[in-house]
Amino acid sequence: AQSVTQLDSQVPVFEEAPVELRCNYSSSVSVYLFWYVQYPNQGLQLLLKYLSGSTLVKGINGFEAEFNKSQTSFHLRKPSVHISDTAEYFCAVISSGGYQKVTFGIGTKLQVIP
Amino acid sequence: NAGVMQNPRHLVRRRGQEARLRCSPMKGHSHVYWYRQLPEEGLKFMVYLQKENIIDESGMPKERFSAEFPKEGPSILRIQQVVRGDSAAYFCASSLTGTGSYEQYFGPGTRLTVT
Q1: Which of A15, A19, A93, A109 is most buried per CB count within 10 Å?
Q2: How many alpha carbons lie under 13 Å from residue A21 in its C-beta half-sphere?
Q3: Residue A33: closest CA among chain B residues belongs to which residue?
Q4: CA–CA gap between residue B46 and residue B57 (Å, rounded)
Q5: Max CA separation in chain B (angstroms)
Q6: Per-residue pLDDT of chain A (114 residues; tens, 9 = 90+)
Q7: Do A108 and A88 form a contact (C-beta atoms < 8 A)?
């Protein structure tokens, strides 16, 4: 079994400030890690994913995330946020070697303040 | 290349009625997944289907819910005798394969409201 914890349900941040959205996971096997973004009344869009290789992953819209196996974390960061980044962000995992049954965190609402 | 299509986008049903949600995967994708998003909660896996087969329905409620993905046509998530607790956003995702690429493409969702 696997689980994902997003500790922050809401994160307010001023425009052009940096932001970090936290994600921790637990699993008895190796996992692949994802961040998705959901804009109001829309579906999910993949921001970035970690499958293997470099632990620092760059995604769309200037976001990046770092996989830390020892801390079982996959925090999402952006050095300077825009108003358009206001959305809900979901961390997700898939067990490696299995099919694509995704386990999602409960989401973090990022509110960018002008 | 059209993305994952879901219809209707919004569906209102009275308690006791049936709800049918449709999902057309991306062209060439033969794997479909359904998720439910309850208010203030993340997405929960419901069912994974391939053409004409249910691979994993471990997330489906035992009663009133069923899903199919026929050889021709969209995948259907059917909810019989809806109750207020079924009000949620239902998302469909598709993938090219069941393993390997590990990327699912999501539709815009169907927002079901039970009155």
Answers
A1: A93
A2: 34
A3: B102
A4: 6
A5: 42
A6: 789 999 999 999 999 999 999 999 998 888 899 999 999 878 889 999 998 888 999 999 999 999 999 999 999 999 999 999 999 999 999 877 666 678 899 999 999 999
A7: yes
